[in-house]
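Work Package 3 (structural annotation) set out to generate three-dimensional models for the target panel prioritized at the project kickoff. During this period the team completed the workflow that converts sequence records into discrete structure tokens, so that structures can be stored uniformly alongside our sequence database. As a representative example, we reproduce one entry of 413 residues exactly as it appears in the project archive.
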Amino acid sequence: MLDEAIELYHQKLGAFEVTSDVSDNEILSVLIARDRIQAGLNDITQISDEQLFKIIELDTRLKQQAHKIKQLAKLAEWRTNLNVPVTSWWWFLQTPSHPLDNFDWLWNALTIASLTSSLSLVIDISTRFLSGGAGFLSSFAVISQSVLTLLTVGGVLTEAGRKGVEQTLSRFGIKTYLWQETKFGLSALLLLSLICLKASLPEIAKYFNDRGLERYRASEWDNAISDYERAISLDPDNADVHYNLGRLYEQVRDVNKAQTEYRLAIRGNIAIAYNDLARLYLRENKPGEAISLLFKARDLEPQLEQRTLSEDQQILMYEIRKNRGWARFQQKRYADAQAELEDAIAKNISLKDINYPTYASAYCLLAQVLEKTGNPKKALVQWDLCNRYGNPRQPEEDEWMGIAEEKLNKGNK
């Protein structure tokens, strides 16, 4: 009878050892097989040495499976239901300790810290994507990182999740004493991926900014505003995007929003943003606010003194000088205004060749300055240039062109 019990024990244990995906029934059959061995050990004097050595060998192998059994089986529930005596040690299997297990508390703490940081990053990144409006890229980014984070958190913090993760680790042959370190590694990998995603937000914002520029040039202004706002939600400190959005708001005549965006853009020390904000102040007859911005714009572009300038630099130099002349005119400093405007016209006459649409402003302003200084005939020449080259899409030039027509009609009579 004992030989049969030993053989059954051997078979059940052997099958259990080679199977990674075991069931409760298989574990229970191994433990019951060991019960039958114990029933045959009532009189140890009647047991041969060979049988004893075999039982000891099998028990050693059973103890080596302690972690797998403890992980998968409901030992406490079974002990209660079957009224198992405390002397039946195989029903009370304890996982053998490893020196590295002494540091499990540290790895657990680091895992919790990593997951907490990951959740904070997920909330931050998701908020940035969603605040710019829904879209395929935004939805994909939010859903993918949220699902990945929830899976990692569930696998570490919930009972069902821990069992699933530990079963997976067991299938991959990872030793049990390395499980806590592995869980920390997974949480750290998640945290690192989220950090990399957050670090890439400025590049993603640049993509939306570039697309916004394309849509702006195609006069798709609503779509351009949407792209710029999404870019700002991803990278709030991107001065270029704030400037582009300000320019678009100015295009659609929303001056208050344009000023707000230009103010945000000048934090990035963009010279043209200083200039354009100053121009909006001049439209409101606020020369004091404008002049300081114009000198700041000039200080940010020291290369404008060079002889060889790009088209953008020529335009900016013209705009700064023209707007300074405008500011001095509003301050009734007519001599300074005339010098600035004549300098703007003289140094940027080549702007006609690059089809810049607002170079007539200096003529319009100079005509007004000449009238104030008692030179009506010279003013008529400038009014003619103002009317000839003016752009009615520019609010101030459209107004000045109307004045120019009146002046020219009177002068021709």
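The longest helix spans residues 104-131.
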